[in-house]
Amino acid sequence: MPAISKATTPAAPNETTATTARPRRSTTRRAAKPAACKLFVLDTNVLMHDPTSLYRFEEHDLYVPIMTLEELDNNKKGTSEVARNARQASRMLDEIVSGAADGIVEGIPLEGPSRSLATGRLYVQTEAIEIKLPPALPTARGDNQILAVVMFLVEKHPGREVILVSKDINMRIKARALGLAAQDYFNDKVLEDSDLLYTGTRELPADFWDTHGRGMQSWKEEGRTYYRLNGPLAPEMLVNEFVFQDGDAPLQAWVKEKEGRSVVLETLTDFSHHKNNVWGITARNREQNFALNLLMNPEIDFVTLLGQAGTGKTLLTLAAGLTQVLETKRYGEIIMTRVTVPVGEDIGFLPGTEEEKMAPWMGALEDNLEVLNGTAGEGGDWGRAATRDLIRSRIKIKSLNFMRGRTFLNKFLIIDEAQNLTPKQMKTLITRAGPGTKVICMGNIAQIDTPYLTEGSSGLTFVVDRFKGWAHSGHITLQRGERSRLADYAADVL
């Protein structure tokens, strides 16, 4: 067993959770270990969830029980995300342990392997521990053996805070029932509360022009009005954020430039007017108008749309895609993909080609194409049939399983049900975009069907937070449902 208490250093900042904010760089040479430095015992699911968690605890020490290594070994086979993460965690542990000059009994400094992201030490269980558990807990279970290790460390280091870190809720409950400290692993969460997620819009106060109008410049260019403003709200605004004001002189604009306390606002195209319809579709509310301004702007390469069922995410996106593929020829074709997570029991293997296998998952596409085909103009049954065939020839349905290594050139890429993607999967998809490609991610973070993903750790939440303020991306959270009064009421009460 490692002699953890031998190490002593200057006091470290007090931490209250297993989360980490921003890694601190160590500027002074490490001397000894502080008594207040915590010891975090890692459960297997933390390493399989995020292999880089070894470097996420800053100045605190980590302890890896032998049972954690055993469970990593049992889960490393296969091609699933969990198996890949288990193999990566094993490789990282091997790299750390094999690079230790003084062996692993005294603890391995993480400052070198982590490139100063972590300054604590890694301890690996090196001796047999006598398991002392209540009779009701079977000692053969791996989770209970890890709990026994935590109990042993608490007894061995009474003056030190020993905390179990686990993604398993029942494991944490059992630990607290035994009087042990236990915490979830929060480092992968973008936000603690989804209500704090960036919405892409900002309502201007009634006195906005009084407080920001001094020294204002305005001009017109290509039919758009521009305002250069200074004021207290300007530093808070983000590029491509939409601002609006209701009242006698309503305003809808978006931030096009930002420099210090100065911003440039540009008025929007009014897609609620029939003359500006997009494939026969007009915006029915303010947020839909904002979304169409993002979808139809060639300077915006990445768009994220959030909203509950029936807010028009898929319909608006397909209408914008068809207009820019078939009318303006801005993009070569539409590529649509989605995560294939069943809501109920899985129906098993599906026959046919890739597109035929994906067809049952693309009911939303078929439903919206029916609406759009009905708005394609006159021409009778023959004209509508020809339009339908033309539309289908320009829409390709692809599976996520075959995306790695591809590059899409001049495509309109739609990622549906994006709330079921992990941040790593989202990165894999978005980096497929080549020159001239526009990527649209749609989803509802209240409808996550993938196990182990939450509203705070979903890949959709991740990209919304990371891309805000970039000059070539935009986000809108659609608020009002426009599907039917039944769908709107069901979304509210159920």
Describe it:
With 494 residues, the chain is an alpha/beta fold. It has 14 helices and 18 strands. The strands form 3 sheets. A 6-stranded mixed β-sheet has the order 3-4-2-1-5-6. The protein has a 6-stranded mixed β-sheet with strand order 7-10-11-12-9-8, with helices on one face. The chain is globular. It starts with 38 loop residues before the first strand and ends with a helix. Mean pLDDT is 81; it is low at 1-34.
Describe the strand arrangement of the main beta sheet, using strand numbers: 3-4-2-1-5-6
- Note the gap between the termini: 53 Å
Number of helices: 14
Estimate percent helicity. Answer: 25-40%
**Shape label:** globular
Average predicted local confidence, pLDDT: 81
Low-pLDDT residue intervals, each spanning 5 or more residues? 1-34
Radius of gyration: 27 Å
Largest sheet: 6 strands, mixed
Classify the secondary structure makeup into a structural class: alpha/beta
Strand content: 15-25%
Number of E-state strands: 18
List the helices and strands and how they pair.
Layout (H helix, E strand, L loop, with lengths): L38 E4 L1 H6 L11 E4 L1 H9 L6 H18 L9 E2 L11 E4 L17 H15 L5 E4 L3 H9 L3 E3 L17 E3 L4 H5 L4 E5 L2 E7 L11 E4 L5 E9 L2 E6 L18 H10 L6 E6 L5 H15 L5 E6 L15 H5 L4 H12 L5 H14 L1 E3 L13 E6 L6 H8 L7 E6 L15 H9 L5 E6 L6 H9 L1
Parallel strand pairs: 1-2, 1-5, 2-4, 5-6, 7-10, 13-17, 13-18, 14-15, 14-16, 16-17
Antiparallel strand pairs: 3-4, 8-9, 9-12, 10-11, 11-12
Helix pairs in contact: 2-4, 7-8, 8-10, 12-13
